[in-house]
UniProtKB/TrEMBL annotation:
This is Lysozyme-like protein. One of its GO terms (molecular function) is lysozyme activity. It comes from the Eukaryota. Signal peptide: none annotated. Keywords: Antimicrobial, Bacteriolytic enzyme, Host cytoplasm. SUPFAM superfamilies: Lysozyme-like. Residues 50-70 are annotated as: Disordered. Transmembrane segments: none annotated. Gene3D superfamilies: 1.10.530.40, SH3 Domains (2.30.30.40). One of its GO terms (biological process) is defense response to bacterium. It comes from Linderina pennispora.
Length: 228
């Protein structure tokens, strides 16, 4: 699946772009720090730093997503955040989505390295393996945004549920990047994500309320832009 995206200014010293979304593809273009890059889409590719999304630029070349963003944010979540996601997703040892919400990428979920049926222990291990793919929000926020571990955990739970593409194009990201208070933005924006297929779903509504409540739990431990 590809997601329509916008763009950013390169913040790393150099970002190499390749002919396709993988490290085995040839480098075809190099962007220097400060270059404004326009993106046409994102597509899955080689996983780097727990993130498998690659950006396709206006020149048709690809680079690992996040070349314009802070890289010091948490690629995981706290134990309390993980437990919250486990409760929301529910445990399934065999039937997709398996474990705690793992979306199978191959027939029979062959990419999963754990033996089926999954135990609760291996299901949790799989969830921990999956979580970095849903910390993609860190690629879309500027370095002026400050999120503690509970705000971060709530937002990762939301992205786990709704997807990176939906998160990136959301008003929530725009408001956070504009400097609004994270708790205010989260309390205002997350409850809007309670529908699927144009229908209100009570389960989603309850999940959003719990995520807001969790985000508003005070913590002095920062998760973005730097992981403490």
């Amino acid at each position: 699946m590809k997601f329509v995206v916008s763009g950013y200014a390169i913040k790393d010293d150099i970002v190499n772009c390749r002919s396709g979304p993988g490290t085995s593809n040839n480098i075809v273009r190099t962007y220097k720090k400060g270059t404004q890059v326009t993106l046409s889409c994102q597509t899955p590719g080689t996983t780097i730093g727990g993130n498998n999304l690659w950006d396709k630029t206006q020149h048709g070349s690809s680079s690992p997503s996040g070349g314009g963003s802070s890289s010091g944010y948490c690629k995981g979540v706290s134990a309390a955040s993980l437990n919250m996601i486990k409760v929301f997703e529910g445990y399934e040892p065999n039937v997709p989505p398996v474990g705690y919400g793992h979306l199978c990428q191959t027939t029979g979920c062959k990419e999963v390295k754990y033996k089926f049926p999954l135990t609760k222990e291996t299901a949790e291990a799989l969830l921990k393996d999956d979580i970095p793919n849903y910390t993609c929000l860190g690629n879309y926020l500027n370095g002026n945004v400050k999120l503690n571990e509970n705000q971060w955990g709530a937002l990762v739970s939301w992205v786990f549920n709704m997807g990176c593409g939906a998160a990136q194009s959301s008003p929530l990201v725009k408001r956070l990047n504009a400097g609004e208070n994270p708790n205010t933005v989260i309390a205002s924006e997350l409850p809007k994500w309670n529908m699927a297929g144009g229908r209100f779903l009570l389960g989603l509504d309850l999940r959003r309320k719990e995520e807001v409540k969790f985000a508003q739990t005070p913590s002095n431990k920062q998760a973005f832009p730097n992981c403490e």
